[in-house]
Amino acid sequence: MTKPALFCYNNGRREAAGLKLGITATDPRVTKATPLTLQVFILQLIHPSKEEEKRERARQRSNREREREMKKAVEAKRDVFPTEIRLAAEELSVAVKHEEHEPSTLVFLAPSKSLLHILDKIGPTMAVLRQDVQRNIERLEKIYLIDPSLYSSLGEILKKEMDDGTARKRESCSRAILWLTRSLNFSLALLEFLEKESEWSLAQIVEESYKSTLKPWHGWISSAAYKVALKLIPEKEIFSNFLMGDDDDEQDCNSLKDDIQMLVSLLRPLLDEINALLRKFRLDRIKST
């Protein structure tokens, strides 16, 4: 008897059965088999017993249950880990509920910090803007912690520095408020373009947002830096996926659009108030040095 004949018997059907059970030509059940037992063994491979069929059905049920559990885990992950935009919107929504008549310092700092995460998603090309935002946040937080009751509102900070004659100085908190507001104006324009202009690339969106918000107030050095940065902007799909997380199906895309609309609806009235406040103190025309 030619023992490897087991792996030629009944062509593909037997071969598939043998391979499925991990049977090889050197298996003892093959090498030590008589012609009769070998034939029985082959038939067992081709026609599994009821117990084997029962185990196979149980295995299939287990796989289906595992798939359902994985699907539930993905859905739970979406609820536990919302998009960056939704996190920013929810944080701002909570802050706005406790706002007094004037824009408060803490309410203003909430979207400013969220902006850092959005800039991180765009990548290192936004490093210059990110550093500027971070520096201004730290400056505003520092003065707030000195006397939270005195510096609880942006209006009080601006008024005090105007009275002291320090509002226009390079390291003033008034300048920090001004440039954080302009950076948030930039992020607001970016989000609106991202939601409305589906055919635009991310580079186009960033460029148009920059032109309408930051460029009029930048000197030639800052403008030149942004021109270089625009050449290294990632694809819009990559940026959107970063904002959504790992999933990029149609449901997540629609969810991201809803989150953007929610954040824009909260951010725009806040920025309108702060821009009006800057105009009131005649600080809105200051350019970078």
TrEMBL record:
One of the record's GO cellular component terms: cytosol
Basic and acidic residues bias locations:
62-71
Q: Highest taxon of the source?
A: Eukaryota
Q: Which Pfam families match?
A: GLTP
Q: Domain Glycolipid transfer protein: where?
A: 105-242
Signal peptide range: none
For the region Disordered, give the residue spans.
52-71
> Origin organism of this chain?
Dendrobium nobile (Orchid)
Q: State the PANTHER family in the record.
A: GLYCOLIPID TRANSFER PROTEIN 3 (PTHR10219:SF34), GLYCOLIPID TRANSFER PROTEIN-RELATED (PTHR10219)
Q: What is this protein called?
A: Glycolipid transfer protein domain-containing protein
Molecular-function GO terms, alphabetical: ceramide 1-phosphate binding; ceramide 1-phosphate transfer activity
